[in-house]
Amino acid sequence: MRDFIAGLPKAELHLHIEGTLRPEAVVRLGQRNGVDLPFDSASGVVRALADRPAGLEGFLDHHYLVGDTICTGEDFFEVTHELLETCRLNNIVYVELFFDPQAHTSRGIPFDAVVDGIQRGLEQGRADFAVDANLIMCINRERTVESALEMLDQARPHRDRIIGLGMDSYEEGNPPRKFVDVFARARQEGYRLTAHCDVDQTKSVQHIWECIDLLGVDRIDHGVNCIEDPALVAELVRRDICLTPCPVWRSTDPGPQDIDRIRTMYDLGLRITLNSDDPGEFDSGYLTDLMTGVQDPSGYSKADMTRLAINAFEGSWLDRVAKDRHIAAVLEYATSHGVAPT
Ligand SMILES: [Zn+2]
Q1: Which residue, 72, 92, 251, 305, has fewest beta-carbon neighbours within 10 Å?
Q2: Interval between CA 24 and ligand 1 midpoint (Å)
Q3: Residue 303 has pLDDT above 90, yes or no
Q4: pTM for the full model?
């Protein structure tokens, strides 16, 4: 099964560039840029990852700490290029990559330097590793609406290099409706739209409703709590909205997170994908390891794994021709391994 999963052509729709730093890279970038960190070795980073409090807040506090070691356009180039190399090793042939502009511009790094660095990394990575990618800028939802609108202004010269707008970070007290004007403007400007609805937040179900009804998103990131509301599930299926849950795990977790609820989503006919979120910050790592770890305890067959891979291309923002080309490659791979997709 592991070999089958490893060889499966994959797309990754929920991956944050700032969450890809390996412990060694955190130390290297931190020292290079003179960033004051509470750890001075890779093993120190690993320990901090294992010890951080469970839940979204504990995760985010660590995430921003290590993300702040990325300081220059050259850093962004290096991290992005390294990411695409790892994608190649995982047979990830397409990635829609999140980045958090406000987390960097608020530290004095120009928006242009961030995007230029990432784009150079994507172009070089495409040439070196044959991995295709598109960029999604995310609103940090704990920041102000004005700050999010300013981010859209800064993105204007890069409109053709950024495919979509997302929203992430501290969800408590920052419901989707806070950003209804920002999403309306982004849609007008031609961006595709997605938003995080993290797991087990206060009013998670209501937040998913707001995302589809008020923000008009094309996709939901996480969204696991939707199964609590049959009407919501029916609406997500009816609109064919793709959801991107992340069954990640840490060394201290008993197993992959939320796999029973994610399996329920799958069985309810929702278009779900499996995603690694922040592979540098979880032991689940990248898709081959993550999908292998999730498959057995979830009871997914090879046909199911094939269906999940197809969902990722179908739920992506590639054009129809590119989707069909990738899906044909997945089907050919499955058939050549004696698997009849469901
Ligand atoms: Zn995420």
Answers
A1: 251
A2: 22
A3: yes
A4: 0.97
